[in-house]
Design brief:
This protein is an all-alpha fold. Helix content is 72%, strand content 0%. The N and C termini lie close together (12 Å).
Length: 369
């Protein structure tokens, strides 16, 4: 098993490089980069935008907004740059690192990322790693609790539905699951706000943030209660939209195993239903559930909570990534992608190792990666 883990870890390097290379190449052809965004601010807002950019970069851009030749090749690269001083455009390119060739920029980026040096945000006066740390508590809270609660509800419910297939319990729980599957989580969120967050009925839960403003002054017990008080509505809306698929997947997986010949044989040998279910069926049926865990966990952690973060005013990684793409803040975009890919690959490896824990008959050591 150790050799398999080493091979998987070694293969993560070219995988991440390939992901970053494709994304970097796509960005090079995407219109409206950071230089164009700054030019649009300047041409649309005049000197105020220039003052903000000069202050954030430490450069002196005064007097560089005019005097460009009409056919200057530098200005012709950027839409709306006509009439701006070429020296100003060169300064912008240097500030954002676009004064170097694309291959050199990519190699430098990968070398920095290998050392977890993600640079600074283009448009926020903060390093990328500090910005991610600042947003991490929200994403950890939403992703972790949503995944744990979803699996805690879905797996026992799916097993119970498989054992009682066709019963009244199976029918009415299926109706609940269909409703949960059909209605998006953000609609559940809006409904919960209307009902319980000062919409039209009750005002039991807060609408903004992960903690209250006086959180620092609270005792530890009160802090924990305050934290979960803020999480009740967003987590409930996410779980209601996520548990349906997992419950049905669990039920169908267990039904497929229960109908196989080895289960009939085990029953004929006199084993109890509990022994048949948990000693024989469980480890086979759970494999497909485990296989779906990495994707569900990573999606919930990084991107699955974007709308929920927006609705409940929770400033997490999902909202950060979305805003960074809109603002062409490439250091933040690529850092999110790098961390997302790395965590996804590591979770996939953990998922494979969990296979061997659930079913010791699986031996990855004798298989190709």
């Amino acid at each position: 098993m150790l050799a398999y883990i080493v091979r998987r870890l070694a293969l993560m390097v070219p995988t991440i490089v390939g992901i970053m290379l494709v994304s970097f190449a796509v960005v090079q052809f995407a219109p409206g980069g950071p230089v164009e965004r700054v030019i649009a601010q300047i041409t649309g807002e005049g000197g105020n935008a220039t003052d903000r950019i000069a202050g954030s970069s430490g450069g002196d851009f005064g007097g560089m907004q005019s005097g460009a030749a009409a056919g200057d090749p530098v200005n012709s690269k950027y839409r709306g740059a006509q009439g701006l001083d070429p020296a100003f455009i060169h300064q912008l390119e240097k500030q954002f690192g676009f004064d170097k060739p694309a291959p050199e920029r990519f190699l430098k980026m990968m070398w920095d990322y290998a050392r977890f040096d993600f640079g600074r945000s283009y448009f926020r006066d903060i390093s990328v790693i500090e910005l991610i740390k600042e947003k991490m508590p929200v994403s950890i809270s939403l992703g972790l609790w949503m995944t744990l609660i979803t699996y805690t509800i879905s797996i026992p419910l799916g097993i119970a539905k498989a054992v009682r297939d066709g019963s009244r319990f199976d029918v009415w729980t299926s109706a609940v699951i269909i409703v949960g599957y059909a209605i998006p989580s953000f609609l559940f969120a809006i409904l919960l706000i209307i009902l319980f967050a000062g919409g039209s009925f009750f005002s039991w839960f807060p609408l903004r943030g992960l903690t209250s403003d006086n959180w620092e002054q609270l005792s530890w017990g009160a802090r924990i209660l305050d934290y979960f008080w803020h999480l009740v509505l967003p987590i409930t809306s996410m779980v209601l939209g996520a548990f349906a698929t997992m419950a049905l997947l669990t039920k169908n997986s267990f039904l497929d195993e229960i109908r196989k010949q080895y289960v009939v044989t085990a029953r004929m040998k006199g084993l109890s239903e509990r022994a048949v279910l948990y000693r024989h069926v469980f480890r086979n049926a759970m494999l497909i559930i485990i296989a779906g865990f990495p994707g569900a966990f990573v999606a919930a952690f990084f991107s699955g909570s974007l709308l929920i973060e927006t609705i409940f005013s929770l400033d997490g990684l999902g909202l950060l990534g979305f805003e960074s793409v809109l603002n062409r803040d490439y250091p933040v975009v690529f850092a999110n992608l790098y961390i997302f890919s790395l965590v996804g690959l590591l979770v996939n490896l953990i998922s494979d190792l969990t296979y061997t824990w659930v079913d010791p008959r699986i031996d990855f050591e004798t298989r190709d990666v």
